[in-house]
Protein 1
Amino acid sequence: MSFRHQYVIGDLQGCHAAYLQLLKTLDFDPNQDKLWFAGDLVARGEDSLNTLRDVKALCEQGAAATVLGNHDINLIAVWRGAAKLKSKDKTAPIFAADDCDELLEWLRRQPILAYPDEHTVLVHAGIPPHWSIEAAATYAKELESQLQGSLEQLDELLPNLYSKKADKWHSGIEGFTRMRAIANYFTRMRLCQQDGLLEFDFNAGLDEPMPTDFLPWFEWQVPRTRKILFGHWAALQGEIDLPHARALDGGCVWGNCLLAYRLSDGKVIASSAQCPSS
């Protein structure tokens, strides 16, 4: 299907008012246009419930698609009792809603990686330098199959996705350690070493001191067949635009704005409304 416009939008984080305002700015028409979301649909904005409902409805209409972010997976983990609701997250209304199970069943079946067009690939946090995009797509499918499996399978997986220590990737890594490493690369990564070893504590901007031997994952220059569109790193404020990578988390929930990247020409449109929670 051909569309008038396609836009990739950074982390919504439940910023429902800013999201609705951005759609007006884009003159979004679900019958002609398509939205792609970089994950973290929910968390610290003022209305995660209606944000999730709206995105689900658009996806089911064929007017949108999303990948999963770390806050989305955490929401699923809270739903299944594998994690506790974080005090800073404003997602409790989702669990009190009549359609909670329907929303979360839909959410867990969303992909980790998607191809918005023939020139780009969309993930939440990034793709590490030691993975090709083709390999990343294969690894994404592995994690998706676990998240989308039976509830028994899901309940075994979720408690094993969390660790304060980064797992070192190698060809023989397997089991829950493998799934956790895959999830961390796609949904938590900011800094890494050239071999892919992750660092979880740094979340500041690029002008801040970084741990020795670690760089932002996108600064390791490796051949890429597609431009990687990503969110997650709010401190970048969407200002990273490289031939192989484009940041799209504008940090709306932190007092900035939502960003929409138009696929046809790379133009970035910002919301004029901020999150009331900021």
Protein 2
Amino acid sequence: MTGFPRRARGIRRALTGALLAGLTLLTTAGPAMADDPSASASPAGDEAGPTEAGTTFRTATALKQGRSGTARASAGDYLYWVFPADAGQRPTVEATVKLPESAARRGTSTWQVDVYDGLRRRQACMYGHQTRKATADAATVELSCVLRPVRSWSEPWADDPLPGSYYIRLTVVDLPAADLGLPVDVEVRTSVKELGGGHDGGGTLAEPLVPGVSVASAGESDERASDGPRTLATGEPEDGWASGWWTDRWLWTVGGGVLAALAAVFGYSLTRGRGRPAHVPPGL
């Protein structure tokens, strides 16, 4: 009878170690993946960005993730850029406006950057300086907007960010009439931070919110049928859109199931007892 208690204690110790290891893995895996600097933003690389901006949604200049673009415009113009963002990402938009010399300006100006999704719904900023004033002697004005995490699916009535194209609109919203038309130099930068599947909505979109993606998809189907080359939809990320079924939630689900099974075995080993006492005759 002495061998069984020792064996039970060994089992309990092994299960306790496995539980602690599993809990440590689950509690540290998520933050480590979310805070990994290598996965936070796409590298800018050596490729030069565009040197002009569109003036409407339809003529918006395309930007790649993690890239910047420049433009020379006039105060009062509406400037547009567009970039892609996928599920599990948190986009950030930054803009720098280089103002004319103070001697040429007449007063204070107010600049604003707005971000719209593929349905042209204005998206709220989690934080940042979306609107800023520039005094008459200011040389530059810095703007920023950190969007909410992009979800893989949302209710039709909600305004949650969804995978697809995101439009940047930069303009001056308050300016002395005498300063209209003065030349300005603008630079916009985009970056995305990978957050993983913690913000998934439990579903997927039939198509990302990219203008013309349905037409492009139909064209791709025809090309595949004729063994022709594949054409990427305009505004698609370099590595393609997320497949929609795999997220790191699967790791949490499987890990939780394993921990639950270990906890059940551990609880059973604690409550099963040591069997029939030696002084109790069989059959009682």
Protein 3
Amino acid sequence: MSILKKISAKLEGMAPADRQIGQFIVENPDQMLRLSSAALAAETGRSQSSVVKFSQKLGYAGYQELKLAVSEAKAQEWQAPTGMIHGTIEVDDGYLTILQKLLGSKLQAMQQTIAVNNELDIDKALKALYEARRIHLAGVGASSLVARDFSYKLMKLGRNVLHDSDSHVQMANASTLGADDLLFALSYSGTSIETLRIAELASQRNATVIAVTGLQDNPLAHVADIRLYTVGDEDRVRSSAITARDAQLMLTDLLFILLIQRQPDANDYVHNSEAAVSVLKAKQLS
């Protein structure tokens, strides 16, 4: 039973405060996914603690986990393209079945990632990225690959960016951060010891910390000033950080595009970058 059906079935037996919150979620699931717990409380005329307790009564650790469940329920309503399957990849699946399941898992992970991040938090992250003197990106493993990709995009906008795949160098870079700087830390689990220690050091240095992590309660989220979330589907694809990486790329690409809109001279920087690369390619061909 989906969480929306579960809430609907329990409405009549709920206390008035819970029933008002539940009714709003059932009738406005898309709007609920864009709201923080405080915003949902305001919409329903209840307290923020009532929203959190409502989530816990349904068996979730907190409001973010409830949002994920609602997102999954909404995703089930989404119609995949013809021939596409979303499900666990089995060892005896054929080539086409694996391809279809993998595409389905990737699309759902990206869709749910966008759904669980409300516009207010995205805007906070954009403001922090836009105003930062220096931006340090941290991540290990697959998250390091996403950090590197995002660093290249930020450099195209003329941003002062620090990134290195070596966690020791990341730690050294973090030690130079100050109050005008920003750490953008990626870890789906939120428990990667290197990324966590770098975030803790950046926080001690009074830098702003943005964490991109999973919805589960985790140490990195506790350190961060601004939290953005990704939804992976690793149990279904049974592989190494595939959908978590895609979700991170979706989120960082969204931030990059929104930064281009916000930065007045962004198009000039992007054009100059493309022109410089074109010159280099021309010389290679000559």
